[in-house]
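Bench log, entry 3. Co-assembly request; chain sequences pasted below exactly as received.
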Amino acid sequence: MVNLTPTAAFTGLPLTIGRATLTAFDPGPVTAIAPYPGRDLSRALAPLSFPAPGCVVDGPGARLVWTGREQAFWMGSAAPDLTGLAATTDQSDGWAWLTVSGPDAVSVLARLCPLDLRAQSFAVGSAARSMLAHMQAIMIRTGEDSFELGVFRSMAESLLHDLTGAMRGLAARDAL
Amino acid sequence: MRLACPCCGPRDRREFTYYGAADYLDRPAPEAGLDAWDAYLHLRDNPAGKTRDLWYHDPCQSWLEVERDTVTHAVHSVQAVAGRHA
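Structure output for the full assembly:
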């Protein structure tokens, strides 16, 4: 058996430009869960529960993040056995994750994303699917000024390029 | 233009892809005959007023039926297609 060495999706992180910082993070194992119609997953997922649209359900060592219609990601540990209840696929290597934080985090994202980022529509602790530049992203708001972003791993460099562009633009305005 | 995705709430036009008339939802039976299939594939109304479209919300992967007005640009309703024929 060949031992493969995992490589980081992003290079050059953490990175601070102006008043925003990008940090790569490892969410642990990620499994997509798509329940079969009419199945009750509540016992299999306990103590977590399947999240409503836009919600994140936190549990010990793992969290369930809503990532689309009738789909959620189990993040942080191996997913429970859902044979016969849901389609599960390993997404651990499929996504690249980073956090955007700092006083300008919202302004950086606002340059790239059509989502309403005000706290009243995107509350702390909730998740959203939206577009970042041209990429379909998963966004989780972990604080007033901090977000976790996930994109397809093949787009990691594009994400970094677009985010740093927005950060430079904001910093340049501040420097005027 | 904004559409209210039943899953995600009101979202910007950029998140959606237009598919065509909602007639695509009413697929004829396989033996319905050439006329029915010809109409299904090729014949579309071009109303000045209320029309029904199919849109796809790319981020959350929902098919939506949108009723809108081609004259006033009002969006009257947005409904999920999934589960309708369940």
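The interface with chain A takes residues 7-12, 14-15, 58-62, 80, 82, 86 of chain B (CB under 8 Å). Helices of chain B lie at 34-42.
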